[in-house]
Design a protein that fits this description.
- With 141 residues, this protein is mainly β.
- The protein has a single domain, classed as Immunoglobulin-like, CATH 2.60.40.730.
- The chain is 13% helix and 42% strand.
- It is built from one helix and eleven strands.
- The strands form two sheets. Strands 2, 5, 6, 9, 10 and 11 form a six-stranded mixed sheet that branches. Strands 1, 3, 4, 7 and 8 form a five-stranded antiparallel sheet that branches.
- Strand 9 and strand 10 form a beta hairpin.
- The longest helix has 18 residues.
- It is elongated and about 90 Å long.
- InterPro entries: YtkA-like_dom (IPR032693).
- It comes from Oceanobacillus kimchii.
- This is YtkA-like domain-containing protein.
């Protein structure tokens, strides 16, 4: 009787181990897909003159795929040290994974800019700085 119980337990254990295997019928392992990340290459000039129109550009990718249909790409900017007084502007979807907006600054200073980006149920907000006029360069701080 003990032998039959041991044999039954052994068969049951082998069956459980086989059921817990993460291999598909084709022999490929599941879960080995690369984790895709939402990434934004945020392009802003390092320096500009007062009143000059500059282009803010976000290149949005999800893994190797360019995101042509982001839920939102919005730029937010403020003078350094004065984040409470920020301005938000919507971007233009260029249909090729790039999102742009134009802005100009009326006063000299260092400005910080976020590219708020939401796509594929993910959100990221890279930040850049720009120096307007003859202020101390954002790179020197």
């Amino acid at each position: 009787m003990r032998v039959k119980i041991c044999m039954f337990m052994l068969v049951l254990l082998i069956g459980l181990l086989a059921a817990c295997s993460n291999e598909t019928e084709n022999g490929n392992k599941q879960g080995t897909d690369e984790l895709k990340m939402l990434e934004v290459e945020f392009q802003v000039p390092a320096k500009s003159d007062i009143g000059e129109t500059i282009e803010l550009k976000a290149i949005v990718t999800y893994g190797d795929e360019k995101v042509k249909d982001a839920d939102e790409v919005q730029f937010e900017y403020w003078e350094k040290g004065n984040e409470e007084d920020s301005t938000k502007i919507k971007s233009n979807n260029n249909g090729d994974g790039t999102y742009t907006a134009e802005v100009s600054f009326d006063t000299e200073g260092i400005y910080e800019i976020y590219a708020h980006t939401t796509a594929r149920d993910l959100h990221t907000m890279p930040k850049k700085s720009i120096t307007i006029g003859e202020s101390t360069s954002a790179d020197q701080e």
